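Researcher: Please translate sequence to structure tokens.
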Amino acid sequence: MLDQGNVLEIMFAWVLGNWFTVLGWAIALIAFVVVPFRRSAAEARSWLLIFLAVPWVAVVIYWLIGRPHYSAERKARFDKIPSLIEKASDLSTLNLNQLAPRLGEDNTAIANLVRGIGPFSPVDGNKTETLSDYNATYDRIVADIDSASDHVHLEFYMFSNDSVGDRIMSALERARTRGVACRILIDALGSFGSISKIKRRMRRAGVEVCDLLPVHRRWNNSRLDLRNHRKIVVIDGHVGYTGSQNIWEPSDHSRRRNQDLMVRLTGPVVAQLQALFVVDWYLETQEELLGHGLFPPLSLAGGDPAQILASGPDFPHGGVDLVFVQAMYNASREIVIVTPYFIPNDALLAAMKSAVIAGVRVRFITPRKSDHVMVGLAQRSYYAELLSVGVEIYQYGPEFLHAKHFRVDREIAVIGSSNMDLRSFELNAEVDFVCYSATTAAQLETLEEQYLMKSIKLNAEEWEARPLALKVLENSARLVSDLI
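Model: Translation complete:
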């Protein structure tokens, strides 16, 4: 019979001989306590699945991307943002009482929600021009830069040192020779391969360049993949651009041609785009850009009521998904979703299903082939569920549909940088233009018809007949979709 000492010796020897496995179990148990804090149940389940399957690998991944929060230093800076925006509003003589549009009850609810997520109220008197031709959009931006007399501000997730990047940088160099102040914000990870060369060239010309969320600050940030995904152009405080298009030429990088969508804006809403650029500049440099030239007196340019929606980890009260869901419940006739990436949350799925059940036509247009394998597989796992309730799914090709817009009836249009996925809802800093104009909605409707002409409509029976192995891959990717 073994005495207590022998039992302890045997247990100790076993632990020493299996220390790797034992520590793996310990990691998994700790994860059960730590991971669920401040997370949705779905995201927590995805993390715990990885911790149970490969605990040592999970520790590394969790250290890199596990905590969706900025550093305490950045949060302290962001606490000053409301006063910064208030100063910007004063400089632009923004009188919300005079510029407040007359919206219907449903649209007023959306506008209030947008203002609650980001800091901007709806303003009337804007002119919206949709731009869907890839190269022609750059032509317009370059032409506006060439006409600038005071300043040019650019903020992009991806700014490449290629043929398109050269066109934009050449225009900025010409602007500097005229004495125009030029500033660029570039996401450090999205433009990782080009940012050093862009900085050297632009700084020689006198252009101020700052990288957003620098990678070398990893020790001061909670995770590497909290990125700034915004696309913003502001020229002289009078002209603004936003949308889905980056500064890059896909064919220069052996990629498929992109189909994108930008909007060229004039009117009071441009001051909101400018204020968001000023906020992002301050967060990275602690420099307040509040000169009178940046916020010239507001002038009416058209009849479109609109507002800018800023979202991301800096704005903790919610993301653009709340706007999508609310607008879907308000729909009476049709909903059109155009996005390259579709990883919905439960609320978004429920809103789409409810709309169809209520007799609303829901059309979803997405690329025929994704440029991210795991995301594409996870996205496809939702199709059978949507098709079964009557959502119409169209796959666009041969170009890669990178445009991101959302339309409800002819009342609300959302155009910007946000995808229909959890990354845009919770992790990325995004910018979206929310417009309450039948004219702008009609422009989108025309674009949608062009997309549909180059799309294949999915059939529920044919989709269900796809190979079992593919279904397994799709459902496996879906299990970790909250993390990708």
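Researcher: Any highlights?
Model: The CA atoms of residues 113 and 322 lie 8 Å apart.
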